[in-house]
Amino acid sequence: MPRNPGIKKVLVIGSGPIVIGQAAEFDYAGTQACRALKEEGLEVMLINSNPATIMTDGVMADEVYIEPLTLETVKRIIEKEKPDSLLSTLGGQTGLNLSMQLAREGFLAEHNVRLLGADPETIDKAEDRQRFKDTMLSIGEPVIPSKVVTDLTGALSFAQTIGYPVIVRPAFTLGGSGGGIAQNEEELRHIAATGLRLSPITQILVEKCISGWKEIEFEVMRDGAGNVITVCSMENFDPVGVHTGDSIVIAPAVTLSDKEYQMLRSAALNIITAMGIEGGCNCQFALNPDSFEYAVIEVNPRVSRSSALASKATGYPIAKVAALIAIGYTLDEITNAVTGKTCACFEPTLDYVAVKFPKWPFDKFVYAKRLLGTQMKATGEVMSIAQTFESAIMKAVRGAEIGLDSLALPKLRELPLEELRQRIHVCDDERLFVVYEALRRGVPPEEIHEITRIDLWFLWKLHHLAAYETAVTGVPLTKEQYRLGKGLGFPDAVLRRLSGSELPCHLDASFKMVDTCGAEFDAQTPYFYSCYDTENEAAEFIADHPSGKQTVIVFGS
Q: Is residue 131 a contact partner of residue 100, using CB atoms and an 8 Å limit?
């Protein structure tokens, strides 16, 4: 299908200021969308109250409005600019909620503005907790036992029926705002009241708590002709109970059997088709680690923070493709810019692992509760790519700029073993380092798994790092040990500190390619990650693609 000829002037709603629980990933999505729309020759209007974003640079849109993201402001701009379309799915929850309100009031119909990406019916099916539950049940997808309520009495009554603990999830909020896990009636009174107050439609979902199940996500893409693909699978290091924005996440999912993977992938494709979403969509599942039982947690009918991770992890430009689908193109008509040969209906292939590590603001808010739950507290994140999980998690911790160059947190070294064992029960921003220290001191992975429900695959990988650290402490390294340490992600400075001696040799980093296709096709515009391997794909790429131009290196922030 060619581009819809009726679309000539598009209004894009940005995500507004960066606040705790909402990082800046929507700037990336909105910028990609604006670029894609402009390349198609469309006139682009942008409204966003945050001047510190790339999307508010003058070159990104024909008209940029740095204005409050309120209904009144958006209405005023629509009346002035008279756009024929509004893109609702690339400004996070803010953009989605505003678009929904404008559609509900009849304002868009009155001014002949079509909603692109997701129509009000689709948004309602995903965001309204009761409609979402009904939709899932109608297509045979299991959901967690739950009840949608609009008052405190209803919440308390249902919790009494199913028993505590329960999870509270407000409708139409971002980052789990207003939600949480209630262990008893007193906690539920407080959390439910907050959730009802923060939900724009005064509605919360009270559901049975299944903390300890695995949390798996699929990023899915669908076009107007009904073609569907999965862009990326992701797995949370932490089990259900910690918001995905506060969890370490690995892509692709690593602990699933093929049967489990195919079961959840099919469910994700089934869901995006039933909801009629055109563009990107994020499906979150809870999977019982002891059986094939699973449940749909929620669906984001928009580009989400997980989309930014999936996009960077695979090289697949989710927001750009979503924007092109919104204006009428189908997946087979959109060229993959990385290969220049394949199209957007090819599912990306990953021959590496990507790890996302959250960044919390607790250094600035010293009195804030560091406990993690269903309400997101991170203000950002870093991502690392490596050939193994060990190397990727080591790289991610260094990238987070929290003063660490390995998984060893100095203050934990002084803790008595019994106190350290108690700390394993506490789910906070330091749990990864507590688990690592416990493994280093000989606490079995099975014991930690029983307490935390973190999958044994992850715990044995951390055990691998801890065992290596113990083996080389105070011992001059052999060349073989040095190479092994570099492969596990230990920097030279850490190896020097551990061994207490000079290193036997030096290994330079080599660079591997992210090309979306596992080298099946020749890449035109790939990007690279570092590792310690004999083959340097970056050097080969540069030799095969001489530009003859002078080159510039740019440092990020």
A: no
pTM: 0.87
Q: What is the dihedral of CA 449, 453, 457, 462, to 10 degrees?
A: -60
Question: For residues 368 and 362, is the Cβ–Cβ distance under 8 A?
Answer: yes
- The 10 Å Cβ neighbour count of residue 467 is 13
pLDDT beneath 70, residues of the chain = 1, 19-25, 174-176, 518-521
> Tokens 């992701």 correspond to what residue?
234
Q: What is the 3-state secondary structure (H, E, C) of 489-530?
A: CCCHHHHHHHHCCCCCCCCCCEEEEECCECCCCCCCCCEEEE
The Cα 536–Cα 486 span in angstroms is: 16
Q: With residue 37 as reference, give the H or E element that holds it.
A: helix 25-39
Q: What dihedral angle (degrees, nearest 10) is formed by the CA atoms of 193, 284, 297, 180?
A: -30
Give the per-residue pLDDT at 23.
Answer: 47
- The reported pLDDT for the residue numbered 100 is 85
Predicted pLDDT of residue 342? 79
Q: How far apart are CA 1 and CA 278, in angstroms?
A: 14
Residue for token digits 């979902």? 205
